[in-house]
Design a protein that fits this description.
It is a single chain. By secondary structure, the protein is α/β, with parallel strands linked by helices. About 35% of the residues lie in helices and about 10% in strands. A 13-stranded parallel sheet has the order 1-2-3-4-5-6-7-8-9-10-11-12-13, covered by helices on one side. α10 links the parallel β7 and β8. α2 runs antiparallel to α3. The relative contact order is 0.05.
Length: about 350
């Protein structure tokens, strides 16, 4: 075995994909351990405190994942040791034990700035629930990571319109998650809608951004390539006025308007008429929706799913009407409590055309 060169060992490793098998491979001898480290492209870290002991073995990592609390110093070490990282997944999964760890010890702007400077090839950065991450780190990341396409800032509640101004000027981001970023206002939405990002964004999540209103939402119609939009629980200031404007985005395929209590039938009519590529609409909790709005989709040729949980003004005959012309429909999601109000014969007839899912 000692006669095998690094090239031969590397060729053998190309056929080993299972992480457990790669670990076993690295135990054969020092040469195999060294080559396994040099060829490894991804790693998931469960004990960030031990980074300095093992990370130098893997200088060519492309993907780095850690769902545990991790410090700024740890990320500075990652940036220095693994400059080729493209995918950084730091989405935090908190456990009851983690609640005793002070937030101040978790990663923030200093660590993110170090990564932005050291890992210039970053294309996907996921920072969900990292509450110390703010505008400074995000702005520098946008400036230096020219290939960034996917950015998840959900529940990073220090993010404000200042960060969105920088994001709006970027021309590469295709997916942006701002769920729970409660400091975002219409000013930030204006930056997204009027900047270069309006021509690159395909997925935008604004769920629980409750300071936005119809004014900012209406501006989003300028995003001419947007395919997926989530505005769930954005509050009472988002009404039919903003959502009818959204319906002019003809590229939309998935739309989540759940728990927008001031959205009603005019929105559905506009969506059915204009969004001919729409496949899924979530209207959970939109209590003003009636059968008239649902029947607007009776002649839609693309929609596959409607979520109508907690929409109590819809009857069985409204659902039956959908079977007449909406051949693409695959399922409708409803409250279990509504089941007793729809005759069983009608349910069986509807189920010949699409599934009724009771929740």
């Amino acid at each position: 075995m000692s006669q095998l060169g690094d090239d031969e060992i590397g060729s053998i490793l190309e056929w080993v994909h299972n992480p457990d098998d790669r670990n076993s491979f690295s135990l054969v001898c020092k040469q195999w351990k060294r080559m396994e480290g040099l060829t490894r492209l991804s790693i998931r870290v469960f004990e960030p405190d031990s980074l300095s002991g093992f990370l130098p073995r893997f200088p060519n990592l492309v993907t780095f994942e850690c769902s545990k609390p991790i410090t700024d110093d740890d990320l500075k070490f990652v940036a220095k040791t693994c400059p080729k990282v493209k995918v950084l997944n730091l989405n935090l999964k908190r456990t009851p034990y983690d609640d005793f760890i002070p937030v101040r010890d978790d990663v923030g702007d200093d660590g993110l700035c170090a990564l932005a400077n050291g890992c210039r090839k970053l294309s996907k950065v996921l920072l969900r629930r990292r509450k110390n991450v703010g505008n400074v780190g995000v702005v520098l990341l946008i400036k230096l990571a020219q290939n960034l396409t996917n950015l998840d800032l959900a529940w990073c509640n220090k993010i404000t319109d200042q960060a969105l101004e920088a994001i709006g000027a970027a021309n590469s981001i295709a997916s942006l998650n701002l769920e729970g970023c409660s400091l975002i206002t219409d000013v930030g939405l204006a930056s997204l809608a009027t900047g270069a990002s309006s021509r690159s964004l395909k997925k935008l999540v604004l769920a629980e951004c409750d300071q936005i209103s119809d004014y900012g939402v209406s501006l989003l119609r300028q995003m001419c390539y947007l395919e997926e939009l989530n505005m769930a629980e954005c509050g009472p200031k988002v009404t039919d006025v903003g959502c009818v404007a959204i319906a002019t985005i003809q590229t939309l395929k998935k739309l989540n308007l759940s728990w927008l209590i001031n959205v009603s039938d005019p929105t559905l009519v506009a969506l059915a008429e204009n969004c001919r590529n729409m496949k899924q609409v979530n209207l959970t909790g939109c209590e003003l929706i009636t059968g008239a709005g649902i029947r607007a989709f009776a002649k839609h040729e693309c929609v596959e799913g409607l979520m109508l949980v907690s929409c109590y003004n819809i009857s069985g005959s409204d659902l039956e009407q959908l079977t007449l012309g909406c051949c693409s429909l695959k399922y409708v999601v409803l409250n279990k409590g509504q089941r007793m109000w729809i005759p069983m014969v009608m349910q069986r007839n509807i189920s010949r055309f699409y599934d009724l899912i009771w929740m």
